[in-house]
Amino acid sequence: MQLIDGKAVSAQMKKEIAEEVAQIKKAGGKIPHLAAVLVGHDGGSETYVASKVRTCEEVGFKSSLIRYEEDVTEEELLACVDRLNNDPDVDGFIVQLPLPKHISEQKIIEAIDYRKDVDGFHPINVGRMSIGLPCFLSATPAGILELLKRYEIETKGKHCVVLGRSNIVGKPMAMLMMQKSYPGDCTVTVCHSRSENLKEMCLNADIIIVALGVPEFLKADMVKEGAVVIDVGTTRMPSSVTKSGFKLTGDVRFDEVSPKCSYITPVPGGVGPMTIISLMRNTLLAGKKEIYK
Amino acid sequence: MQLIDGKAVSAQMKKEIAEEVAQIKKAGGKIPHLAAVLVGHDGGSETYVASKVRTCEEVGFKSSLIRYEEDVTEEELLACVDRLNNDPDVDGFIVQLPLPKHISEQKIIEAIDYRKDVDGFHPINVGRMSIGLPCFLSATPAGILELLKRYEIETKGKHCVVLGRSNIVGKPMAMLMMQKSYPGDCTVTVCHSRSENLKEMCLNADIIIVALGVPEFLKADMVKEGAVVIDVGTTRMPSSVTKSGFKLTGDVRFDEVSPKCSYITPVPGGVGPMTIISLMRNTLLAGKKEIYK
């Protein structure tokens, strides 16, 4: 069993991006600039955005943080999106989700210029991904592809089972793994809460990507010998052991599943660290206008 | 075994659409207007477009046919798309594919205003479909959904195997069958030319949608008793029996597979007749501004 070390891969990627930014700087080019919009004071969102801003600094990007209180109106937020769309210095930006209930997340997402949509949530980017055209891939799927690539995991012709059909992980992951490319070229099965035959599907899988958000859902008797298991789950479970009072728990019962695997991602330290670095890479691509002119 | 009669369903839908158009007319509303752009004189394209124009007449739509010779430039075609985008009388339009090699199909598709993209090929419509938002569904997937619906075929929790991963059938079909809706809510597997375990997947399937374009690919020993089989294949095979000198052949060996099925679509007369009528429905929706304002 080999552990897929997302922390090490993301650190390596961070180094690579920082080097490229240093070269751009040296050549007198434009420093990539990521803006983040944060509404309210949700603990999780605060942590994510702070981490994104910090990573920008570490790789040498310019970053901006725009804050609104919980009671911001949809109109104000749309006006902010419009300003960022039209700000030539901003290469890419994100609006941290979730948003307060009185604001339509979909409306905000669709208002973002898809050429600056480094989160990859705009329908144009989702559609282009599905068709197989260059686009901004959303962070978690992009991070998983990168892990498969860096560990040179064979995918062609393999059976990949995706557990979960969310718009941000399950569906894009399925589309990507069936594309005629590497990683990809898999037979892909998507299972979810309504699936009658989930266990037998998993037992048949060469690669299992679990994104259900159900702690320790995947057990040893659902996994065949030699499988590759990618755990996207990150549920905060109360813990008396950690200082914070909780611990991140994946969707895989790691202790019993890992001995059967050829490769497995731990939680934490697997897929998690890949998401922010994938956002950084999208920002770099946006800055270099590699995907859209 | 029950035959799924696409010809009868499409005739019924044609009647329904014609009635709705008659009511719109009576109420003094705007008659839906479909424009079709045809480049060159390819036999298949000529037939399809003629059939689309004829069906427009039958349901009471206004239709326009814009023809270009094979040597039209990309710029001229883009200018035509631009005119149609800006023509307030045109509710929806299609550019018949394939286009000559010197013209980028993708560029033309992306130039079409997605609110008039009744073929559903624009990345925005593809992305919105994937996310589960209202959109123009492309004709073949929409036609298959309609057949499943009108025959009240159970899909929830079933295992649906899609053979083929094309952008116009396989991928959208997979996305639609996994959505939390009816028809849908299936466990979905997508197999293709690289799949190592295609036969066992098919044997496990409750619903098989075959869109490989390989005549008589699906055989009796690949189908379990009671399966639903949807045949999207339409290959022209030479024939000494028919007047035209060819016959349409599906991707299913119908004679041996059909006795095992609970439901099956024939070729011709199954999925085929559903495609044009699905385009008509999209045009009606465009005319009524039901999807986009």
Your description of this structure?
2 copies of one chain form a homodimer. Chain A has 10 helices and 11 strands. Chain A is α/β, with parallel strands linked by helices and 293 residues long. Chain A folds into 2 domains: 28-115, Rossmann fold (3-Layer(aba) Sandwich), CATH 3.40.50.10860; 139-274, Rossmann fold. In chain A, strand 5 (159-163), helix 7 and strand 6 form a beta-alpha-beta unit. The model of chain A has no long low-confidence stretch (mean pLDDT 97). At the A-B interface, helix 5, helix 7 and strand 6 of A face helix 5, helix 7 and strand 6 of B.
What key phrases describe this protein's structure?
16% strand, 6-stranded parallel sheet, 293 residues, 3-stranded parallel sheet, 10 helices, Rossmann fold
